[in-house]
Amino acid sequence: MVVGAPFPRNGSMPGQIEEVGPGAVFQVSFPRGERASLAIRADGERSELVVTARGGDAAAAEGWSAVLTGAQYLIDEVRKRRHARQAVVVVHGIGNQRPMATLRRFTAALAGPGEMWSKPDRVSRSYELRRHQLRGTHDRPSTDIFELYWADKVPGTKLKQITAWLRSLMLRRPADVSRRLRPVFYLSYGVLLTLVIASVLLAVAVGVDGVSRLFSGVAGLAKIGWVSFLLSVAGAAVNTVIISTLGDAARYFDDVPDNIAVRQSIRDSGMSLLRRLHTEGKYDRIVVVGHSLGSVIGYDLICRYWLEVHRSHGRPPIVQQAARQEFTGWLGKSIDTQADSNGYREAQRDLWREYRRLGQPWLITDLITLGSPLTFADTLLARSPDDLQTRVAQFELPVCPPRYDAGELTVNEKYLVDGHMRSIKMLNHGAPFAVVRWTNLHFPARWLLFGDPIGGPLAPVLGCGIKDVPVTTSPWIRRRTPLAHTAYWRRPPDDKSRSADDKKPEATRALLDAIELDSGRWLDKHMAQMPWQYFIAEEAGV
Predict the structure, then answer these.
(1) Could you read off the pLDDT tens digit of each residue along the chain, which spans 542 residues?
(2) Gap between the Cα atoms of 182 and 171, Å rounded
(3) DSSP 506
(4) Beta-bridge partners for 19
(5) Is the C-alpha dihedral spanning 237, 243, 245, 246 positive or negative?
(6) How far apart are CA 510 and CA 507, in angstroms?
(7) 3-state class of 88 per DSSP?
């Protein structure tokens, strides 16, 4: 339904939409000169159609017949649009990822045989990608799953770029490092100190000439064919492992000039995907799922797209913001218990629905992070824990719940409707997680070795409104070793080694609960409460 689109008419040629104005007011013309404007206005629970005819060459009755036929067409289109549809965006993690590999494993964990179709992906605009569609059920809306593929945006990583990043981390004071990383730092310092002492003792024991002869002997040994070959293979393997595992992280986290273009390219591709999902008028809810470094990218994309649309709104004649007032009551409170968490998340959902009814185009309801390095945000996103708090206070790094001082959560926007000035309070640029619920899944790790060494709880670092969910899986070698980092959407076999006292949910089950694919009941109810003109405006792209 765009400018130039045909407009139905009884027994004659269709008219044409000439203009779509603010508030979804359609200006329509017909071949014999009839002209009309159609506007749909909503007032709380009631909607009305306002038709204004402006005459023409034909008889008045025929003109009105055309207009009313067109109005019925609009109403039918709006009713069709009320069938909810949702999208899930999966952001892969580090490593030499191939297109579609993450998406296939992810979808296989969510859907059973016969529930998924592989469809062309016309949103990502990549010939390498497709979208997976889950059929709708009574409780589950039709769901499209997309992969944000970014591995091709990080070309030519060199070992020196990784060592430079690691060196910048190692040169920090222990007090400026995340508490969970301090044992690693102390161990690293101990190993380096041991090597230095050993080298000094060796030099003292055998003398400089003896050390020179020793290294000459080792160098000579390395020249032997098979020894040289083994050393070269081992060196290449180490280089490959280090570059493939740490290269992406070094290029994304280290904001030196060489990495800016890489960071910009990854974010540009993600922002383009989110814009198209929001503006094409096809979806009513979007969920972002990020694994490993992909969780950091997902967080960044939400924060940056929020900057573009957080002040956008419709032009409702009456503004009621009860959910905003209720949500404000949660700010400043400690969210410690399960009941508190449930209450806060319900307030977030109500606030999202309220702003959607007021015409805000934001569709993202949930961020789900899996094995997220954001648990080390005070080291990876800032120079120290104090620096992290400074950036949070300056709204550079949004947290959940949003940082709040009296009067700072919202900005007042004014607009004209029917000649009367109205005002609406819109959330500020640092408050995306007022309307986006954040769930973080992690395998608990002891001493950063026995479990997922990369993931961990986020609430202590980025806000008590984040729901941290420790998970488990089978067999034991998956959940008690670093292999756990790749097991978040792996359907495990039955495992008798799991303790009966282990009350943590299985990872795939927890992932399904967090995504809430069966959102049909509350989403359909929300759609029924949406004013008609916003559906039409989204269909028309205004």
Answers:
(1) 444 445 454 444 556 666 666 666 777 776 666 777 777 665 544 556 676 766 554 444 555 555 566 666 666 666 555 678 999 999 999 988 999 999 999 999 888 778 899 999 999 989 999 999 998 888 899 999 999 999 999 988 888 888 888 888 888 888 888 888 877 777 777 878 888 887 777 677 766 666 566 556 555 555 445 555 665 666 666 666 677 778 899 999 999 999 999 999 999 999 999 999 999 888 999 999 999 999 999 999 999 999 999 999 988 888 889 999 999 999 888 888 899 999 999 999 999 999 999 999 999 999 999 999 999 999 999 999 999 999 999 999 999 999 887 567 899 999 988 788 999 999 999 999 999 999 999 999 887 778 899 999 999 999 999 999 999 888 777 878 888 899 899 876 654 444 444 556 788 999 999 999 999 889 888 887 777 555 544 544 44
(2) 13
(3) B
(4) 27
(5) positive
(6) 5
(7) strand
Note the pTM of the prediction, 2 decimals: 0.81
Sheet (strand 142-148) strand order: 116-120, 130-134, 142-148, 85-91, 285-291, 364-370, 437-442, 467-470
Note whether 479 and 443 are within 8 A (CB): yes
**Residues whose CB is less than 8 angstroms from the CB of residue 244 and which lie 6 or more positions away in sequence, other chains included:** 94, 95, 96
DSSP E strands in 24-107: the ranges are 25-29, 35-43, 46-53, 85-91
> Which stretches within 254-292 are classed as H helix?
257-279
In the block, residue with structure tokens 């045989």: 113
Name the residue type at position 500.
A
Q: Kindly provide the residue ranges of all beta strands, DSSP E only, lying in 205-284, ordered along the sequence.
A: none
Contact (Cβ atoms closer than 8 angstroms) between residue 442 and residue 457:
yes
Residue type at 533 in one-letter notation? Q
Q: Read off the DSSP letter of residue 493.
A: P
